[in-house]
Amino acid sequence: MGRDRGDLQRWPWAVDPIRRLDLVTASGARTLVSSPERYFSDALGDVRLRLSSNIFPLLRLLADGEIHSSRELSAALNVSPSVLRSGMRAVEKLGLRVQGLRGQAYRLTEPLDLLDGERLARLTPPALAVELLDQCPSTNGVLMDRARGGVRHALVVVCERQTAGRGRRGNRWQSGIGTDLTFSVLWYFAQTVGRLSGLSLALGVALVRALERLGYPGVQLKWPNDLVLRGRKLGGILVEVTGQPGGPSTVIAGIGLNLRWSEARSAVVDQPATGLFEASATVTPRTTLLAGLLVELHSALERFALAGFAPFRSDWLRYHAWQGRRVTLRIAQRTVADGEAVGIDDDGALLVRSARGVESFHSGELRLAGR
């Protein structure tokens, strides 16, 4: 037991609550790589890896899917074989499959595409500061904490493993390690909160444009903030806004995008969903994909700050998945509209034609009629 306590002190993820590596490129872009979680032992002193522990140094060694000897891994992490075995059990609890070779070597059964902070820094616009977290409860939550303390404009937080991601109306956002992209952008606007209508729709347009440029056509938008592919949910946008009555406003836009999907994941969500790579022969590295999304989002945020939603409206209508379809809009479990989705107005409100005529709505849960 005494030996395990010594190993605990030497674990590379037994770190201070925030450990950062600043990566600065010639272009001036910065990526902050942080590990905000602590590795800990239980009250009896047995070393245990729990799901809240940061085991990403181990994951990065295994990510290539190649065989690594126990001696190699133990030396790289400066831990004993018994602690290494505990680490492997923790990796499996995360849903990853580890193949052990008589206790002498280990490998992941499939390679793991983890984000590359240095490459991300080279590919993202210099105006953005990107903070890459191994794990966190929610990227929106992290940015809210940063905003309360006063942080720079155009800060992005990306997380490999979100443990309590949120969608609209308090829904849980399911994500996996290496299978999705989950990130949030903090942006300060001079405008009041009321002048930011349509922002989530504009960001949806930016994401679809980026995916088209990256070789993924066919992604559509569902009002107000979902991305869909072949009728199944691909991703979502959660925009949270705070500000003074006369401005300025602080916006935190959280984005989740499914890349790989499985039947096991379908069992824990309440609607049909899919992953970007499921219907495509193209599998873009997650780092490249994220950088492409950030380039387009940065451009869209700058344009929205100058001109609002109007420049995005025509493209949104072009990408609208349910244009001309019969829909039902519900607010607080009550149906408020049942008719044809005929588009959106200049500030992003949904337009529905029914027996009452054409009405506009700024919020609600939209479904195809009869579903």
List keywords for this structure.
single chain, 371 residues, alpha+beta, Arc Repressor Mutant, subunit A, BirA Bifunctional Protein, domain 2, SH3 type barrels, 3 domains, 9-stranded mixed sheet, 5-stranded antiparallel sheet, 17 strands, 29% strand, disordered N terminus
In terms of topology, how is this protein built?
Layout: H1 2-10, E1 20-24, E2 30-34, H2 56-62, E3 68-69, H3 70-77, H4 81-93, E4 98-101, E5 105-108, H5 117-123, E6 129-136, H6 139-149, E7 155-162, E8 180-189, H7 199-213, E9 219-222, E10 226-229, E11 232-243, E12 249-258, H8 263-266, H9 286-307, H10 310-319, E13 326-331, E14 334-344, E15 350-354, E16 357-361, E17 365-368
Parallel strand pairs: 2-6, 6-7
Antiparallel strand pairs: 1-2, 3-5, 4-5, 7-8, 8-12, 9-10, 10-11, 11-12, 13-14, 13-17, 14-15, 15-16
Helix pairs in contact: 5-9, 7-9, 7-10
